[in-house]
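hey team, just a heads up i'm posting the complex here instead of the shared drive bc the drive is being weird again. everything in one block, sequence lines first with there labels, then the predicted structure for the whole assembly after. its two chains so it's a bit long, scroll down
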Amino acid sequence: MTKTRASLLTAAAISAVPLALIAGFAWAGGWVGAPRLGGSTVVDAIEFNAGRHEGYRRAHAKGVCITGYFTASGKAAPLSRARLFATGRYPVIGRFSTGGGNPFATDGRNVFHALALQLTGPDSQIWRMAMDHVPIFPVATPQAFAALQRASRVDPATGKPDPAAMKAYLAVHPETRAYQDYIAAAPLPDSFANGTYFSINAFRLIDQTGTSRVVRWAFEPEASFGALDKAALARLPQDFLFDDLSERLARGPLRWRMIVTLAAPEDATDDATVPWPAGRRTVEAGTLTLTAAQPEERGACRDITFDPTILPDGVALSDDPLLAARSAAYAASFRRRAVETPGPSAVGKKLTQGGG
Amino acid sequence: MLPDRFALAIRLLHWTTAALIIAMLFIGVAMVSTAGPAYSALLALHRPLGIAILLLACIRLAIRFGTRAPPLPGDLPRAQARVARASHILLYLAMIGLPLIGWAMLSAGSYPVRLGAGLVLPPILPPGALAFGLLRELHALAAFALFALILGHLTAALVHGFVRRDGVLATMGFGRNAALEPPVDETGESLEEAEDEAPTGEAETPPPA
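-- predicted structure starts here --
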């Protein structure tokens, strides 16, 4: 009797060990407890908004590959020990894209024009950037991003988002209202070539002594600005921006100056919805030269993610929560599309024909 | 004469890798579950930890081949002894395979395998989205399989230690192994006294190796 009870106790104690591990594992993985927002939750929200387009990037689905080089001026080298800032010329691959999760959307939309880059330093360390032509972002957190995707889904019946859902969202997200006001008023570049592309998030540059400084950066175009007529967007050809890009590149390289802006102590480093005031110290780190574009089937950009947290030594993350969220969401998007058959390039048919 | 415990280096490596692997499995699932700031922090931890486990497992395997392992109790049913052996082979395979799959997966996905400031491992596979996608799924599957294997291993070790009390658990411990003394002889057959001391429970399998 006693013996049976003792062995029952032993059995219970022994079972408790793996059971405790299983419980801890389930908690760590987010399968129990409060619902957790992960990269796949963010991608689910995008798919809810834009539909599921297999074989394509879930965000910025429509794009084209580009190649060129970055010429560092050396002026940013005192701010960062990244070898990419030392005077020299370093190879670049990248991607131009338009915002949204639909690869077959027309270019005539008042959305992000985006430039993604991968710079490779002399030490082979790489730096990936994913930039937009607007200096501020509509949301500050991944929770808000997912909520905005859900609220702004276009109702096929009306061609517009559900006004009630949008109103409920905006009531708790005034930062998105500020962004909407900005993008409604700001001129929309009539070319990928004449847009200024912003880092969106703050980052830190770390110098030789280990001192870290919070920065944002922008790539300012050499090409003169021209704006699209927002009233006539619906009449633009489907691939207007991408066609324009290939025509311009056929005439010669396109250039941008990389301007690094240093934060003042009072500037928000963790909130991409808030612009930094003008007049901050800036450093011209170098020049980006793009020489050619390739459709995604042939270019080097399709099978990588432009995860902005992939940084060389000397550049580090800030406390902006969007950075980890972008990294997690891009990884989740890549995980999905990697096992799907890649869709044919949604743009660049002209490039394929012309460039063989 | 066979030893009554694993070599000291094996025992030290066993407990070090045990802690690292459990931490690694928890970090892995936690990382994938969140898009919060912890994602980047855990990811930055996941890569160097994985490579550390790979190195330690390789060192341990080399030492394991170069040293003698303590015997399983002579009264252990042959089927259980086989399961024990198979599970240990699978554990070694997972310890070495999981980090390699992770490294190959990141290589195929064109992700740099960054271990820390200025330390980036070279790719071990050419870039390819499909290879990335398949290895990504395999990495997760293998991780769950390893977790299940560890649960079985741990439970079996506790049964050996506290139900059978046959000295198997102590082969990985740091104290005297009373249950396996006097040890079995060269042929692997138990000496009579050891036979008498060994309790005869119906316990599940393996010694922790």
